[in-house]
Amino acid sequence: MDQSQNVAAGGTAKKSSTGPAKNVVDTAVAAGNFSKFAAAVNAAGLTDALAAKGPFTVFAPTDEAFKKLAHGAWDALIKDSGKIRAIVNYHIVDGHFMARDVKSGDLMTRQGSTLSAAVSPPDVRVNGARVVQPDLSATNGIVHGIDAVILPQNWQLLAAAA
């Protein structure tokens, strides 16, 4: 659609978007398919930290990714503030990396251990999880939707005993 038809004679078109208006958490929430990740950020007490200046690159599991966890694992995890904080921080890297800027190799996470990126255009993966929704720009970084919850090496999420 030609936007110039909507400009008054002699006027100039105003750019409708001056850039992102939301931080990384609000950007993920606005995208509509990261409600579990947003709940995890909240349960971990990291909402204010992720509203800070940044920049942050967040590899946010989609709601579908959380459905892949073992039955009961989410419920147990959301009640363990220490573990959920570590796991959320494992999904966050300092810096601003668009999908095209991610290089194969290790990335240091805010959790303190590395995750492994594997890039073979157009595919970007972190610890085997595929970036399915890249480059959601935020005021303080970028969010990439991934198709799995990723964990530091040798970590496991177990379902709570019934």
Describe the 3D structure.
With about 160 residues, the chain is α+β, with helices and mostly antiparallel strands. The protein has one domain (about 20-145): FAS1 domain (Roll), CATH 2.30.180. The chain contains five helices and seven strands. It has helices spanning about 25-30, 35-45, 65, 75-80, 80-90, and strands at about 55-60, 90-95, 105-110, 115-120, 125, 130-140, 140-145. A seven-stranded mixed sheet has the order 2-1-7-6-5-4-3. The longest helix has 10 residues, at about 80-90. It starts with about 25 loop residues before the first helix and ends in a 16-residue tail after the last strand.
Throw out a few tags for this protein.
162 residues; FAS1 domain; disordered N terminus; 5 helices; 7-stranded mixed beta sheet; alpha+beta; single chain; globular; 25% strand
Brief summary of the model shown:
The chain is 23% helix and 25% strand.
CATH topology: FAS1 domain
Order of helices and strands: HHEHHHEEEEEE
What would you call the shape? globular
Mean pLDDT across residues:
85
Question: What is the name of the CATH class?
Answer: Mainly Beta
Helix-strand category: alpha+beta
- Radius of gyration over alpha carbons? 18 Å
Number of helices: 5
Write the SSE topology.
Blueprint: H1 24-31, H2 35-43, E1 56-61, H3 63-67, H4 73-78, H5 81-90, E2 92-94, E3 105-108, E4 114-120, E5 123-126, E6 129-138, E7 141-146
